[in-house]
Amino acid sequence: MERFCLNPEHQNKQIIGYCVQELCRKQTRALCMKCMTGQAHSGHKIIEQTEEEDFFREPNLIYTDLIAKLNLIKRQFTQGISFLERILEKHYRPIPLNNIGNQEVDNKINCILKLDKVQKLVNDRIDNIFEHTLKSIKLTYQDLTIGTEFQCYEQTQKQNYKEALPLIEQCLLLDSKNTILKLAKAEIYSNTNKVLEARQIYEQILQTEDANPWAFLEFHKLLNQQERR
């Protein structure tokens, strides 16, 4: 694809290379001949278009490794949950006692009588781990965003809510289906005692994404807080 320089003084000059200096703060990284021979990117690492394949070789390997790692974690987590499902199915699923042999009846009754303790055990251990993991995932997602969206999360994490809310609204105008932005908005409402507004956002998310883990957890937290009052 033909691309032309964004510098008004270099009008209609074709892009022939890119600045790949990590901390470059110039107007653009796409460079024409005048940009490459000028002072703006002096001392910066420059690649020509013909070197693009070499430049992407290592990033492609890193990206592939990252995706493979996430897929592996997803499979491992699913497998771990399946082990819990199997042990619950094996010992704790209520079934008519007439359907099992006499030697199994005692074990089955003992397990059934412990189901409330089993439920508490699972809730205490798995819920806490799951919630911590989800928090880490959301924070990592936010840290990987760029531009104004990154600023939204940065200000929210710093609890600069007055600065964060207008930025979130601005981003939602461009991307109205961005769930993480909506969650950030709900978080601000929740932390500024606008519980009803926060609940409404979580409910709206769950209407379209009934398995959304962040909205589900935070929505039920708010419900539990209200019930305790």
Measured on Cα atoms, how large is the radius of gyration? 27 Å
The major β-sheet equals: 3 strands, antiparallel
How far is the first residue's CA from the last residue's CA? 62 Å
Give the CA-based shape. Answer: elongated
Helix proportion: 55-70%
Topology pattern, helix = H, strand = E: EEHEHHHHHHHH
| CATH domain fold name of the domain at 145-229 | Serine Threonine Protein Phosphatase 5, Tetratricopeptide repeat
User: Strand arrangement, largest sheet?
Assistant: 2-1-3
Separate helix tally:
9
> In the CATH hierarchy, what is the architecture of the domain at 145-229 at level 2?
Alpha Horseshoe
Number of strands: 3
> Which CATH C-level class of the domain at 145-229 is it?
Mainly Alpha
Mean pLDDT: 91
Task: Report the oligomer.
Answer: single chain
Estimate the strand proportion: under 5%
Classification by helices and strands: mainly alpha
Q: Which parts are unreliable, with pLDDT below 50 for 5 consecutive residues or more?
A: none
